[in-house]
Structure formats: C-alpha cells, structure tokens
Specification:
heterodimer, B: mainly beta, globular
C-alpha cells in the first residue's frame, strides 16, 4: 500500500463549479496534512495545512480531514481557470522526524 | 514571508562533471531538504539536514552528497553527473521539532545532463 495515494487525474471541472480532490494515507499515526499546488514547470506552493478532524476554510479552499477513515480532501469553490494545476497531498510520518511524504498529485483542469 | 532561493533555474552539464546546486533560506529554519521530481515518480527525497553539519539520507541518496556549513545554506553535490540525474531539483525548508512540518519550496533547478 502506498503511503499517500491520490488519483492522478486529470480531473476536469467546469468553471464556477466545485472541484473535489481526494487523498488517502496509510500511517494511522499521522498528525499533519498539507495541500500543495504546483503549476507546470514551477515548484510546489503550500496552500492549506490541517491538523485536526473536520473542515478548515481559507477563501475558496476548504480542507477536510477524517482521521478515522485516513482520508483528507481539498475542495475548491467557484473554480477558476487559474486553479488548473497539479495538487499534491502531503502527510507527516508519525515518529519519523520532520519529514513529510508526498502523493504523486492530481492534475486539475478547469474548463472555461 | 518565507523565502527559499536556488542558485540556478536552468543548468546544463556534461556527463562526469561535478555539479553544485545551492539553496538559501531566510527564515531561520532548522530543517532543509533536497528533492528531485520526475514525471510519474513524484517528489523523491534525496537528503535532508536538521542542523549545521548534520545530514541524513533520504530515499535516493546514491550519486549525491550534501553540505551544510551554515544554517541558511544547503548544497547538493552531484559527484559525477550522469544522464539519469537529469531532473527538476527542489530545495525546501521547515521549522524543526514542531507538529506542523510545513515545508516551503524554492523555485527549483532544472538540470540537464548531456
């Protein structure tokens, strides 16, 4: 089982709709969860961090965490063409220093 | 605002050359990381460092070494570049010993070895 799994996509969403990106992780002791956005040819940019169960909202972004199901998601409301990018999910490893493990990312394409 | 900079955006080297990639961060972060990113393989950790003069191997350290002489600077060294080291190299930094582990990335260096 991969440590952090994401659907590679591409996920196509009409402009103005809600984009839903999902991620599962294998280490039940993980405590820190991150979403990064990466445009083609650029480096990853941290957009959300979440540490406790439930929802965390920041502008058009909402991160959702369910530790019992080992599942974390990112919702993007009112999707814009500028949201087209690859989204990386990352999770810390419990008791393994300060490293985080990255998923391979989901490509999101917002259709104008 | 966290700032991580890398010495070059694009680099072309010949097989067998020794290559130095430099990374500097200005947020007094203890942790620094070097990754490479290849299509279909995602981000892979090469080396990381918790403190000055400390280094730990990541998942793919073979063919690489690192140096951390100052807290803000972390260098990746390709001892003898090979074509399979053509890749995007990403440096990141984070605070140490907190729950949060947020890593901030530099702009990346796209290295081509011919």
């Amino acid at each position: 089982q991969k440590e952090v799994e994401q659907n590679s996509g591409p996920l196509s969403v009409p402009e103005g709709a809600i984009a839903s990106l999902n991620c599962t992780y294998s280490d039940r002791g993980s405590q820190s969860f991150f979403w990064y956005r990466q445009y083609s040819g650029k480096s990853p940019e941290l957009i959300m961090s979440i540490y406790s169960n439930g929802d965390k909202e920041d502008g058009r972004f909402t991160a959702q965490l369910n530790k019992a199901s080992q599942y974390v998601s990112l919702l993007i409301r009112d999707s814009q063409p500028s949201d087209s990018a690859t989204y990386l999910c990352a999770v810390n490893k419990m008791n393994r220093d300060d490293k985080i493990i990255f998923g391979k990312g989901t490509r999101l394409h917002i259709l104008p | 605002d966290v700032k991580v900079t890398q010495s070059s955006r694009y680099l072309v080297k010949r097989t067998g050359e020794k290559v130095f990639l430099e990374c500097v961060q200005d947020m007094d972060h203890e942790n620094m990381f070097w990754y490479r990113q290849d299509p279909g393989l995602g981000l892979r950790l090469i080396y990381f460092s918790y403190d000055v003069k400390m280094k730990e191997k990541g998942d793919i350290p073979e063919g690489y070494s690192v140096s951390r002489e100052k807290k803000e600077r972390f260098s990746l060294i390709l001892e003898s570049a090979s074509t399979n080291q053509t890749s995007m190299y990403l440096c990141a930094s984070s605070l140490r010993g907190t729950l949060f582990y947020e890593q901030y990335f530099g702009p990346g260096t796209r290295l081509t070895v011919t």
